[in-house]
Please model this.
Amino acid sequence: MAREHGEGEAHRKLAEAELAVYPPDYYRKPCVYEEDRRYAVLVIDMLNDFVTGSLKCERAIPMVPNIRELLDAARSSGVPVMYLNDSHRPTDFELNRWSPHAMRGTPGAEVIPELKPRAADHVVPKTTYSGFYATDLDDILRSLHGKQGANTLILTGLHTDCCVRHTAADAFFRGYEVVVAEDGVQAFSEPQHRVGLQYVQYWYLADVLPIKTVIKRL
Ligand code: ZN
Model:
């Protein structure tokens, strides 16, 4: 269950400490491409079914304006925007775990209206948690930035402890560094969200930053 905590820095730190599963002293921030950051922004499963539909997560609604601000900033800085969208067929194995959601061709599988992709954005359909699994994502990322390829991926969307986490894993396996937008990802509960953030920082050379800070780096 999500727990309510008070406002303010002291309460935030207390909440973090209570949920500390992975030791923060062992986190390592992205460092490999420090001299030549080539970003891409990934928007994961911000679809009608994930936000307001069959797998709805009301905790995602307040972050929508943050993601929109990030996407506007990315587009005006020439940073590519990619949408990784569940697009399920009835035979997809994942549907043995989850009830039907984001079924291909249905309104539930469309990006929420507030974050609708623009013509220049890339839309990548996927059939399970990772945006890299059985998709063209890696090829597209390597074709960006004048074919030099993106090397640092900014992750937003749903869920911190599932598709964000699995996409971060596949990014790490392929030599990308990762920044997770702290106020641009969410999960079904605060503990799931927090532990998801901890997990990627511990294992995947990932940073977790507020969107305002991310925008300054674009
Ligand atoms: Zn799915």
